Amino acid sequence: VSPSRAPSADLRARVLAETRREPSPTRDKHRRKVFLALSAAAVAALGLFFALGGLRPGPRPPELVAATTGFALLVALVLTRLSGPSPRSMLGRPRAVVVAAVAGALLALVLVALAGAAVWPDIARADAVGRSVHVACGALLLVQGILPLVALFVTSRAADPRSPALTGAALGMAAGAWAATMAYLRCPHAAATHGLAAHVAPTLLLVALGAVVGYRLLRLRR
Amino acid sequence: MLAILSSVGDVPVSGVWLVRGTTAAVTGDGQGSGGGIRDTASLDAAMDRYARGDDAAFEEIYDALAPRLFGFLLRHTRDRARAEDVVQQTLLQIHRARGRFEPGARVLPWAFAIARRLLIDQHRRSGREVLARTDDDEAADLLLALDAGADELAIAKQLAARLEAEIVRLPENQRVAFELIKQEGLSVAEAAEILGTTVTAVKLRAHRAYEALRSVLADLKREEA
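The joint structure predicted for all components is written out below.
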């Protein structure tokens, strides 16, 4: 590097002095913080789940409960994997992959809601669900999704130099899919309209919320 | 003409240095002009030690990254103070995020992505163009530094201006892909990581930029002939 293309020696001294003045957490400390934040969020979400009745199959056969919960769990696992760090990279996966994952996950949750009602039409048809039930179930899903989302945002602040809104949306989708998994365990209703209104729509809201908050919290700050 | 350009070497003048880097890339004999580290594995290892708590490793990280980031940023800002400011911010971001550094991750694409983001933010705040014009004073320094004839230097300056104009005209995604691969010497995979896209997309963008610049060189050769 020629002298004119090298930064000044003064810069080196300034940067090193700044790092000494403002120590940063090591990996072990950071991992402890992430573990504590996510554990607290998981305990709160599960506490809410059990406090409000835990597993409630209602008129749903065990196969329906297992299928809807299993699919939602699969979506949650895939999204959690894709929205987190990728191997050998600090920057996550390509934008196209994340966009496809979020869109695919939403579509999968829609299909879960519709397929359950299609395979067990008698149970779904007999299940007359009022609007207030949609709202209460959807609100609970939102709360259960927001808890891990907040923990993820707190531990990833100012960490995304590339696409903070998209990362936030993916985290929102992952949190929503986990909350939807719990919803299929606790919610006794099998109607497709309920699945779409109370399980998929709040997840979509979490994606939008994740994108907006992610843009503000995850982007780099000087 | 190319002989003149290859004789320019690591001359620090942004305009002609750009031509030198670009020409080497367009003629296929260059893997970038950024000096600095070639051994990215040792940089990654130093970062890993720093993440584990070895504070002394940050000096190695600084020495490996700062010149390379500075070269990249200076080409975009043409302003040493602004380039140094972004280098400082980039290294402090890396310092603050050391706990998040995953074992086995690569530092270079991460650092370039941070620098690029901070640069874009800085440009947005100041409302300046991403690529400023070549500084004439620096060009004059180059002329003094080179022991070449006036005609050859005039041709070199003309070529520099044409190529620079062509680079500025390139679509942003093609320009950045070209710069990262051909001028900074990053791999296609690293450039893809920085830009958040696929390897195939980066290859395509860089190829299109390369073809556009090669056609400019071909035009100039014809004019010269």
